[in-house]
Amino acid sequence: MLASQAATRTQTYAIVSSQIGAARARALLAQTVEQVAPRYQDQWDRNLAAAHLEHLTAGELSSIAELGARSPYVSKLLGRQDAIGGSMQACSSDLLRDMVAEVIGIMFGEVAPRR
Question: What is the residue extent of each domain of the chain?
């Protein structure tokens, strides 16, 4: 979702959209993100775990995973969501940028005139 949102804010996406129409551009974007995302998922997951571990202990996270809403640490997790999000953004912005660049490159290649 983040990759799609970021991609739609690029000039290249605007060009693709103007060439093939907004609906086709959205469909191509969704298809391309789905194709590319698996290559980035493992690193994204590691970054997400690291971001959580900056603000909660492994034991607290295990409790939440095991007990869900019954965990005594859920309120701590909820209270630290903004900080966790900030940590995730700090450690994943390059990864997201690389993914969006790949997605946009593929999309542009699909609609660029062949010579």
Answer: 2-111
